[in-house]
Amino acid sequence: MATDPADSPSRQGSSYRFLLAPKWIGFHLLVTIVVIVMINLAFWQLRRLDERQQFNARVDANSSQPDVAFDEVRANLADPSTIEWRQVRVTGTYVPDHQFLVVNRSQNGVTGRNVVDALQLDDGSLLLVNRGFVPSTDDAPPAPQGSIEVTGRLRVSEQRTTGQPADEAVEALTEIRRIDIDVLAQQFDATVQPVYLEAGTPDARSLQPIVDPVLDEGPHLSYAIQWFVFSICVIVGWVLAVRRSIALRSGRRVRKRKSAYIPIADDSPQS
Q1: CA geometry: angle 63, 87, 65, nearest 5 deg
Q2: What's residue 21's pLDDT?
Q3: pLDDT digit string, tens, across residues 157-170
Q4: For the whole model, what pTM was predicted?
Q5: % helix / strand / coil in the chain, to the nearest 5?
Q6: What pLDDT, on the 0 to 100 scale, is given for residue 13?
Q7: Are residues 114 and 105 in contact, defined by beta-carbon separation less than 8 angstroms?
Q8: CB of 196 within 8 A of CB of 129?
Q9: What is the pLDDT of residue 164?
């Protein structure tokens, strides 16, 4: 039985040599880099999903616990993250003339500011209280006078992320970008607690309570799946490109497809 020369081992080996051409090597590297980047993006989204799930679980676990007096959780202040979102009650007197407005905030599509005052506790220390949100069209109400009990959830200090401007601890800081306790503590002579309180019930008609955090998982899982699918598509495209080039060089007829084929290198049949 005669053997087709095109099917001989030497002929088959020579049909793959074009894959080592400079243009094809560049194509292989491009495909490899693109696939690696896409897979890393997919795993990054999965890590963000895991972080989101942990955040949701922590918020749900801490916020579902019964209200307690602030003194009952002060033993945990060495690690404030363990008591964040706990509902607590605290009694004190607001310090006059030390109000801060957290600018560039929004709630329910309305822009405005958060109103923050310092509550002096029985031991002389201060607890910053986010009293609520006020729209830009309204004036920030002054803090109530005299002894007052505030109930709300504990929050940790807000931190500046990369690229965000910092709040300068000037002599009289009034407008701030975030509730950074380390910065605001420099405005007082007394000790400032390492957490702050988001008041549950506003003490003025113009104030609105701070909205609850959104406890969904976001689009991270769908984004991860998309990146995995994109990487598979690139690999499949690479395989099809190689197979088509091999077919063209072996002289076999290639069935025309509706989509246009863009050659990677010199894909003309070899004589």
Answers
A1: 45
A2: 87
A3: 998 776 666 666 66
A4: 0.74
A5: 35, 20, 40
A6: 55
A7: yes
A8: yes
A9: 67
Residues 204-233: b if buried by 16+ CB within 10 A, e if exposed: bebbbbbeeeeeeeeebeebbeebbebbee
3 state SS of 176: strand
- Residue 116 CB-half CA count within 13 A: 29
Going by their DSSP bridges, the two strands 147-156 and 175-176 should be labelled as: unpaired
> C-alpha dihedral over 114, 115, 119, 125, to 10 degrees?
60
Q: Give me the phi and psi of 26, to 5 degrees please.
A: -60, -40
Q: Which residues of the chain have pLDDT under 50?
A: 260, 271
CA-wise closest residue to 70 among 130, 126, 14, 135: 126
Torsion angle in degrees (nearest 10) through CA of 175, 179, 182, 183: -10
* Predicted confidence (pLDDT) per residue in 132-141, tens digit: 999 999 999 9
- Parallel, antiparallel, or unpaired: how do β-strands 110-120 and 126-135 relate? antiparallel
Nearest to 247 by CA among 216, 226, 270: 270
Position 271 scores a pLDDT of: 45
Amino acid at 216: D
